[in-house]
Hints:
Pfam families: NIPSNAP
Strand order of the largest sheet: 3-5-4-10-7-9-8-6
Protein name: Nipsnap family protein
Number of strands: 10
Number of helices: 11
Shape: globular
Family: Belongs to the NipSnap family.
Low-confidence stretches: 2-80
CATH architecture: 2-Layer Sandwich
Strand content: 25-35%
Distance between the termini: 75 Å
Domain NIPSNAP: 212-309
CATH topology: Alpha-Beta Plaits
Organism: Kwoniella bestiolae CBS 10118
Structural class: alpha+beta
Amino acid sequence: MSLTSLRTASKRIPRAFAPLSANLHTTPSVTKDKKVTPGGVTADTDPEVDPKKGGEGFFGSLLYGSKEAKAAGLIEPSHQGQHSKLVGRGKYVHEKITHNVIPSKRDEYLAAAEKYFKELIDHNGEFGRVKLTGSWESVVGTVGEFTHILEYEGYKGYDETNRALRGSKEMQSLQSQILPLINSRQHQIVSEFSFWPSSPPHDSGYPDGGIFEMRSYQLQPGKLLDWEYAWRRGLEARKRFVQPVGAFFSQVGQLHEVHHIWQYPDMETRKHTREQAWSVGSWSDTVQETVKLAQSMKSTIMVPCPWSPLK
C-alpha cells in the first residue's frame, strides 16, 4: 500500500475510536488532590504534607525521611526518580564479600584471611580509607561460608581503594594466599537504608561475640519503596527488644536483594526476642506486608571471626 493510500485509510477511522485509544494510556487518579504512596495509602499534594516536597506531615517524615535525617545527609531528597536515593543513606557504600571455603581448608583460610583483613585495617589510610565493618563465619545455613562487609566513602572511595589494592604487591600477595582455599566468591555492592545505619565497631561482651543472624530477602522487582515503608515501622517494634546491627539493599551484583543483620548472645535469646516482637501489633503488620513483597527468604546464623571489628 502506498503512503497516499495509508493516509487516506487513516482518515476513514471513526472518531469514536479516539477516546478508547486515549484511555489505554491513562492512569486513573484517586482524587484530584490525593496521590498514592508506596504503602498504598493517599497523601495530600499540599507541600506541607507531601513527602516528595519535603513536608513535615506523617508521610513526609515516615516514608521519605524526617528533616533531621535530611539534614544529617542520610537521604538525598533531590533525586526523586531513584529508589536508592529515596531510601538509602548516601554517604557510604558497602561491599558484601562472600567466600565459599573448601571444607578441608577452613583453618588455613582463617589464618590467611586474618592476615589480609588485619593488614587492611592497620593500613586503611593507604587504601582509600576503607573500613572493615565485620567478618563472620556461617554456622547455620550454607556452612563453610564466610562473609566480610567493607565500608567505603562513597563510590569515589570504592574506586580509590580498588586502585590502591591493585597497586599493592603486599596485598596482592596476601590475596593470592586466600584464593586456592575457596570454591567460589561473590561480591555485591550494597547501600544502607537511611533509617538503619550500621553499628560502629564494638565488642558486645557476649561470649565469643555471640551470634549474628543475617536475614536475606529476594524482593519482587520494583518493591523496594514498599519494603522500606513497612520496615521503617516494623523496626521500631523490634528495637524494643534488640538493637539492629545493620540493613542493606543491593545496588550492583545480585539485584533486588535486602539483608538485615541482628546480634544476640545466643540462640535461646534469639528465640525469646523474636517471640517478644509479636506482642507489638505493628510487628505482625510488618510481617504480613513484607511477605507479599518477597520472592524468597533466607536466614543465616553467623559467628564473628577473631579479627572482626563487630563482635
